[in-house]
Amino acid sequence: MKVQIRTEYACCPSTTIDIPEIENWNGVEEWYVKWDKLHYKVRGEWHEIGLDSNSLETISWKRPINTEIVDPETERVLESEEE
User: Fold this and answer.
1) pLDDT at residue 49 above 70?
2) Per-residue confidence band for 54, with pLDDT thresholds at 50, 70 and 90
3) Strands across the sheet with 45-50, in order?
4) What's the pLDDT score for residue 9?
5) How would you class 18 by CB atoms within 10 Å of its CB: exposed for 0-12, middle for 13-18, buried for 19 or more?
6) Is the pLDDT of residue 42 over 90?
7) What pLDDT sits at residue 22?
8) pLDDT-derived band of residue 70, with 50, 70 and 90 as boundaries?
9) Torsion 70-61-17-49 (CA) sign
10) Residues 6+ apart with CB under 8 A from 33
11) Long-range CB pairs of 75-81, under 8 A, 24+ apart, other chains included
12) How far is residue 72 from each of residues 10, 42, 66, 67, 76, measured CA to CA in Å?
């Protein structure tokens, strides 16, 4: 019998960066993180800074958040276990 194992892990990278355009965080009008880059808006202009998080090293491979056993043909979940 073939089964599909779906495993969900937590990843919590932490990076310290310098934002040259502002004195404090109140100067940031909008922001979001995507593809390991901080995108932020200051005085109406968007900027981005790479975070270099190295996220694979921050995954706790020992303790998954959730694991499911799935029938690959029907996509039906056969078992589910949450931490």
Assistant:
1) yes
2) confident
3) 30-34, 37-42, 45-50
4) 87
5) exposed
6) yes
7) 87
8) very high
9) negative
10) 39, 51
11) 78/3
12) 24, 48, 18, 15, 8
Return the ∠ at Cα 23 (arms to 22 and 26), rounded to 5°: 75
**Distance, CA of 78 to CA of 80 (rounded, Å):** 7
- Token match 């975070």: residue? 51
Domain locations in the chain? 4-82
What φ, ψ does residue 32 adopt, rounded to 5°? -160, 160
Q: Both tokens of residue 25?
A: 């965080």
Answering whether pTM is above 0.90, one says: no
